C-alpha cells in the first residue's frame, strides 16, 4: 500500500507539474493570437487520451477479467458505460463553460466566466488522476507486477505530456478573458490539482475495490473518452485550421501508443 501510494503520488505529482508548466505559456504568448495553438493543444490531449483509454485501461481491464475467470468484455463494456454516465452526470450538475461558448452548462450559478472556464478543464482531470492511481495500485498488488508498473509509468508520462498543452488551454483563454497573466497562470496550474487528489484517493481505497479492478479500469476509460468526444475534439476543430486540430489528435495518439508499447 505505501509503495503504491508513493508511486501514485509521484506519478500524479508529475502530471500536476506538467500542467503547471503548460499554464506558464501565458508568459510566452501574451501578445499573440493563440487560437490556433489552442486547437493543436486540445487535439493533442484528445489523441493521448484515446490511446491511453485503449492500451492502458480497456485492454488491461479485459485481460484481468479473463485471468479471474470472467468474460472479458462484460466488465470492460459495463465499466465503460458507467464511466460515461459518471462524466455525463457531472457535466449536468457542475456549472462550467468552454472557451468558444457563451452559454454555461450544468446547474444555474452566479459564477463568473473565468471560474466556469476553470471548472470545465478541472473536470477533465478527474478521470486522468483516477487512471494513473489505478494502474499504480494494480502494479503493487501482491508481489508486484512489473508489466503493470511499466504501463502505469507510461500512462503518467503520457498524461503529463498532454497536460502541458492542457494547462495552456486553461490559462490562455483566461488571459484572453481579461485576467492578468499571473492569475491566469495560477488558475491553470490549480486546474491540475484534481489529478493527485483523485489518484491518491483511488490507491487509498484499492483494498476495497480490488475485486472490481477491471470495472474501475474500464470506468476510467469511459470517463476519458466522454471528455474526448464531448469537448476536446470539438474544441480542436472550431473555426478555421481544423487540419491543425486533426494533426494534433494524430500526434497525441502516436506519442501515447509508443509510450505504452515501449514501457508496458
Please describe what this structure looks like.
With 264 residues, the chain is an all-alpha fold. It has one domain (2-25, 46-263). It contains ten helices and no strands. The longest helix is centred in the N-terminal third of the chain and has 33 residues, at 35-67. It is globular and about 55 Å long.
Give a brief description.
The chain is mainly α and 264 residues long.
Order of helix and strand elements from N to C terminus: HHHHHHHHHH
What structural class do helix, strand and pairing data support? Answer: mainly alpha
Proportion of helical residues: over 70%
Q: How many DSSP-defined strands?
A: 0
> How many angstroms separate the termini?
21 Å
Q: What's the main sheet like? A: none
Could you name the key traits of this structure?
10 helices; mainly alpha; globular; 264 residues; single chain
Spell out the blueprint of helices and strands.
Blueprint: H1 2-23, H2 35-67, H3 73-93, H4 113-139, H5 146-176, H6 181-190, H7 194-204, H8 206-209, H9 213-236, H10 242-263
Helix pairs in contact: 1-4, 1-5, 1-6, 1-7, 2-3, 2-5, 2-9, 2-10, 3-9, 4-5, 4-7, 4-9, 5-6, 5-10
